[in-house]
């Protein structure tokens, strides 16, 4: 795809995103709002899990830290009125999520594969329990966040645009990482970390940077998600399904690709919220079957389907043999 065509498609997508709420019902706007949030978290997770190959099963900890940090920052310093009043609390949520990731990065990133994934799952559970049981965090009784929605604007439209902007931010940062020396170093770590280290790649530094960047972006999303709820408790934001969704979306769309997590989120959320909305008793079974089918038939995800379908691999092998 040529650069002018890519820019034209991006401009068309931006215009469509801006105008779409005018033609949709509040329900469908809320569905798209959640799609932008879910896709953005998957894109942010992909920087660590897809580019560097360090799968985190506990990335929901950054969502929770972002939401709690934004709420407590607002309680201490004030939230302010209107959309501008949420900017500093949201930035604080992202910064504190990134700082927490920096603190735990060195010991955790010494683990690899399943050990790192399970360790992150444990971190998420520990932080959730602390937030729920320590009175200082107020996770058990819940926290209120004032509405930043301007007068005359529907809340679902405001958060639709807020999460769309954050998805765009995550995609731009992910694109910049993928095309940079930083991104090439992460890909080298994913393919063979020991060899990359022997070739002079500063593996520890790059892994920590990817971990902190990914956590910061998810923390920003968690802070805005807290505002969208208005009132939340620990179980509202420290949700294990959020972490699993990030992984599943990336797997289905194409892990390690730029738009794979977005495509995976779009497919699964369209399936569960639109096509199977009237079959709540079986939609989890059908969704699970779809995930298994995609992983078995297209292990590289939808974006790599042409190269990873079994008959394509077999034909390629025969041609080379």
UniProtKB/TrEMBL annotation:
Organism: Albimonas donghaensis
Coiled coil: none
Topological type in the membrane: Multi-pass membrane protein
Keywords in alphabetical order: Cell membrane, Membrane, Transmembrane, Transmembrane helix
Highest taxon listed in the record's lineage: Bacteria
Name of the protein described by the UniProt record: Amino acid/amide ABC transporter membrane protein 2, HAAT family
Signal peptide: none
Entry GO MF terms: branched-chain amino acid transmembrane transporter activity
Lineage of source species: Bacteria, Pseudomonadati, Pseudomonadota, Alphaproteobacteria, Rhodobacterales
Localization, UniProt: Cell membrane
Entry-linked CDD domains: TM_PBP1_LivM_like (cd06581)
Record-annotated membrane-spanning stretches: 31-54, 61-81, 87-109, 158-177, 208-227, 247-270, 282-303
InterPro entries, sorted: ABC_transp_permease (IPR001851), LivM-like (IPR043428)
GO terms for cellular component: plasma membrane
A Pfam family: BPD_transp_2
């Amino acid at each position: 795809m040529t650069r002018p065509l890519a820019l034209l498609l991006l401009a068309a997508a931006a215009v469509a995103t801006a105008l779409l709420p005018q033609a949709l019902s509040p329900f469908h706007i809320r569905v798209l709002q959640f799609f932008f949030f879910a896709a953005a978290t998957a894109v942010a997770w992909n920087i660590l899990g897809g580019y560097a190959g360090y799968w985190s099963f506990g990335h929901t900890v950054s969502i929770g830290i972002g939401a709690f940090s934004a709420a407590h920052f607002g309680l201490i310093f004030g939230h302010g009125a209107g959309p501008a009043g949420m900017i500093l609390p949201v930035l604080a949520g992202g910064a504190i999520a990134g700082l927490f990731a920096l603190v735990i990065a060195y010991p955790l990133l010494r683990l690899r594969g399943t050990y790192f994934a399970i360790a992150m799952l444990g971190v998420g559970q520990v932080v959730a329990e602390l937030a729920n049981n320590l009175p200082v965090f107020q996770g058990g009784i819940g926290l209120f966040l004032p509405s930043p929605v301007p007068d005359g604007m529907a809340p679902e439209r405001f958060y639709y645009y807020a999460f769309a902007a954050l998805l765009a931010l995550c995609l731009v940062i992910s694109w910049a990482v993928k095309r940079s020396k930083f991104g090439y170093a992460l890909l080298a770590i994913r393919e063979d970390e020991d060899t990359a280290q022997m070739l002079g790649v500063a593996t520890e530094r790059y892994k920590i940077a990817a971990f902190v960047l990914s956590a910061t972006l998810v923390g920003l999303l968690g802070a805005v998600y807290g505002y969208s709820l208005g009132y939340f408790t620990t179980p509202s934001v420290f949700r294990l399904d959020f972490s699993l969704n990030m992984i599943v979306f990336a797997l289905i769309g194409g892990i390690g690709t730029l738009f794979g997590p977005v495509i995976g989120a779009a497919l699964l959320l369209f399936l569960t919220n639109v096509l199977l909305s009237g079959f709540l008793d079986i939609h989890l079974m059908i969704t699970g079957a779809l995930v298994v089918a995609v992983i078995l038939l297209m292990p590289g995800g939808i974006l790599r389907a042409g190269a990873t379908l079994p008959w394509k691999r077999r034909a390629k092998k025969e041609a080379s043999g």
